[in-house]
Amino acid sequence: MSRKVVRSSKFRHVFGQAVKADQCYDDIRISQMTWDSNFCSVNPKFVAMIVEASGGGAFIVLPLNKTGRIDLSYPNVCGHTGPVLDIEWCPHNDNIIASGSEDCSVMIWEIPEGGLITPLKEPVVKLDGHSKRVGILSWHPTAHNVLMSAGCDNVIILWNVARGEAAVRIDTVHTDLIYSACWNTDGTQILTSCKDKKLRLLDPRKGTVTAEKDKPHEGSRPVRAVFVSDGKILTTGFSRMSERQVALWDPKSFGEPLTLQELDTSSGVLLPFFDPDTGIVYLCGKGDSSIRYFEVTDEAPYVHYLSMYSSKESQKGMGYMPKRGLEVNKCEIARFYKLHERKCEPIVMTVPRKSDLFQEDLYPDTIGPEPSVEADDWFAGKDGQPILISLKDGFVATTKNKEFKVIKSLMATTTSSSGHRQADSGEVQALQAEVKELREALEELTKRVSELESKN
Length: 456
Fold this sequence. Notes:
By secondary structure, this protein is mainly beta.
């Protein structure tokens, strides 16, 4: 008889904990839309959340350190004429964010260093091409300035953002609403799940289907799908009896799932977040008050349940921090930004270790912010592998964020203005320094006011 009862794993004791109340973002009116997107996107500089807005759509962008109560008059990004449905930070530039809206447009915004001082109404680029609302956005993982959008017109568009134009339009594949769309690690494949109960693997540049699976889950409710390690696919969906399920597939033989597990009988769609460095997948249900996590391995049953983080309040959305934004000295392997009705609460996932030294086994080299190929080259057929960085000394941006350039024939040529720009750079620096001083003074005054209020 085998003695080994419990499977050994260094992630058996992943420990989830919400931060203290003063480290949350309070008094934010999160959007009441019933759309199944994350409603939140984070990177090492900012957290962005879709909020309620009168007369159009808006989202708020806060520097990570701006915790506590957020004033109602805090400036937001408000250029859409309809509610915003999805937002996504660019992985290659922490100041660039894309938003998709019910007004059928996609907009690209540049957030200034330190956050917004006035409301942002004019996008850097506006991308028009969808005939119905745009509910899914995803940046290419390795190609600079390539963005995928999926709309309720059952169309997927791949944009060359630098040129402000649609480079590939996939409009004959999906016969119904697209539930999810994502890239694989190097961006050579797109995976979609659709209301017509099909899971499809697409060649992004040709717009053709390379493999498809009919009815990955029997139920009629939305299916979500993500790539996990070794090109395998993890799906979340519902059984015919409306029980929530998680399944793992090998696209080389799509017939039967490698594993299919039933979880519970809740109605919320499970949003999967996969961490390729640790092989852990986190399942966050919309309307749930818990986050389940599983380890995906090569041995049966392939998807191993680890544990669950539970809290009292349900989540309206969830943001997931890229690995380079985590605190490695605290053995933090994931951080979520959970949206409540009126606040955003960071939840930290750690692997408790006694040593203060860098834990190499928890932090293999991870995907960095440098793209490996430019948009024009990628659309011409060139692929690029992710450029990995070490987190040993914590992530420090050694190179400046990839500059965001827009090449548009309609825009004034940049050469004619470059002479003026050099002449004005001294003035600009002086103004920036002045703004910084004013912001610091304002923060100091705000702190003093709150201290006085708390004494009263």
